[in-house]
Amino acid sequence: MPPHARLRFPASASPRAAIVITVSDRSARGERPDASGPAVAALLAENGFEVTATAVVPDQERPLIEALRAAARAARLVVSTGGTGFSPRDRTPEATARVIQRPAPGLAEAMRAAGAQKTPRAWLARGIAGLRGRSLIINLPGSPTAACESLRAVLPLLPHALDVAAGRDRHEG
Amino acid sequence: MRVKAILFAVLAERLGVREEWIELPPQASAGDVLAHYRPRLGAGGSILLAVNAEFSAPEAALHDGDEVALLPPMSGGAPILVVTALVRRPLPPPPPWAGGVHGAVVTFEGVVRADADRGPVQALFYEAYDLMAERRMAALAASAAEKWPLTHIHVLHRLGEVPVGEVSVRVIVAAGHRDAAFAACRFLIDTLKASVPIWKREDRADGSRWVEGEIPL
């Protein structure tokens, strides 16, 4: 981690603890995070996850790397929204790639495939997914609708994925 | 359309261009100006855009005669680490500083107090309009970063029940020098309390009441 990192989220031992990180668009003036963070948090809470924190970071690699690492230390599921497009400022997949240790490309493909049923532009989402230790990190797009649709596409897989990642189910995976 | 591109500092030097008019297709956006220079700039580098001297998103539509600036990272150096968060569990103590990149660190912690005018408080309960609170906190951090030369901003606010003695809000500001760190920390906690939509309820043995604050600005 960077030598000056100083961020800790509250750690939760719950196998369903989740942290949502909104990557804000530092466009125009100041920071204007998308509305997707709270929408994603609500969707997770409806599906049995305990959202212990929601954070906003600017769309720059270093703060995002710090936030992803801190979140993965504190919760089993880390979901980011935003910064996955083609604009030069979109750096979320690059930052995430530096944090995850084992890629889970299937989750990202499932999200794109679900989105593509609505619009072919879903194929332009560059989000990735993967494990850091026992924690799963997933990049969602920035728009609230696309973020929630993407998350819904993989939600049914997450409990089993997290259990296997924690070593609690050795039969599959 | 024709727009005036202006480049600064390391970008101007690298490309040997300070200012020139470039021809873009109609419907062009600010990002197209960056794309125009990208092959000569190479990949990477966090270049910001400004249209007519205002920060601009790459998608912003351009008009004939606009002035589009490519801004390399501003002096003040390293990218600043900004994180704002709403947290639903006790805040862990922050890890120690390392690396020696910050000359001054000011931390403010708001701690739930037992005493109140109507008898002992057992806990405070915080409720937020979370979408707006996230936006306001991020905007405050961004304006602090604009006003002072800072290296680090963390603003963490608890939601839900916070027992007496626990930290309900933590603002950490780091900078090269103490004046900026103190001023920015003070600005952040003061404007946060006045303008971020978070409300608190005092829970006592004999009941609860919502604490009226200042009217949000």
What is the topology?
The complex is a heterodimer of chains A (173) and B (217).
Chain A (H helix, E strand, L loop, with lengths): L16 E8 L11 H11 L3 E9 L2 H14 L2 E5 L10 H6 L4 E2 L1 H12 L12 E4 L2 E6 L3 H11 L3 H8 L8
Parallel strand pairs in A: 1-2, 1-3, 3-6
Antiparallel strand pairs in A: 4-5, 5-6
Chain B lengths: L1 E6 L1 H7 L3 E5 L6 H12 L6 E4 L2 E3 L10 E5 L9 E7 L16 E8 L9 E8 L1 H18 L2 E9 L1 E4 L3 E9 L2 H18 L2 E7 L2 E4 L7
Parallel strand pairs in B: 1-5, 6-9
Antiparallel strand pairs in B: 1-2, 3-4, 3-5, 7-11, 8-10, 8-12, 9-11, 12-13
Beta-strand residue fraction of chain A: 15-25%
Uncertain runs of chain B are none
The main sheet of chain B orders its strands as 2-1-5-3-4
Tally of helical runs of chain A = 6
The level of helicity of chain A is 25-40%
Largest two-chain interface? A-B, 43 and 51 residues
Q: What's the SSE pattern of chain A?
A: EHEHEHEHEEHH
Q: What summary fits the major beta sheet of chain A?
A: 6 strands, mixed
The largest sheet of chain B, given as strand count, sense and whether it forms a barrel, is:
5 strands, mixed
SS-derived structural category of chain B = alpha+beta
- Can you tell me the overall shape of chain A? globular
Poorly predicted regions of chain A: none
Question: What kind of assembly state do the chains in view correspond to?
Answer: heterodimer
Spatial arrangement of strands, main beta sheet of chain A: 2-1-3-6-5-4
Note down, in words, how this protein is organized.
- The complex is a heterodimer of chains A (about 170) and B (about 220).
- Chain A has 6 helices and 6 strands, in the order βαβαβαβαββαα.
- Chain A has about 170 residues and is an alpha/beta fold.
- In chain A, α1 packs parallel to α5 and α4 packs across α5.
- The relative contact order of chain A is 0.19.
- The mean pLDDT of chain A is about 90.
- With about 220 residues, chain B is α+β, with helices and mostly antiparallel strands.
- Chain B has helices at about 10-15, 30-40, 130-145, 180-195; strands at about 1-5, 20-25, 50, 55, 65-70, 80-85, 105-110, 120-130, 150-160, 160-165, 165-175, 200-205, 205-210.
- In chain B, the strands form 3 sheets. Chain B has a 5-stranded mixed β-sheet with strand order 2-1-5-3-4. In chain B, strands 6-9-11-7 form a 4-stranded mixed β-sheet, covered by helices on one side.
- In chain B, a hairpin with a 2-residue loop joins β12 and β13 (about 205-210).
- The relative contact order of chain B is 0.15.
- The interface between A and B is large, with 43 and 51 residues.
- β2 (about 50-60) of chain A pairs antiparallel with β6 (about 80-85) of chain B, so a sheet runs across the interface.
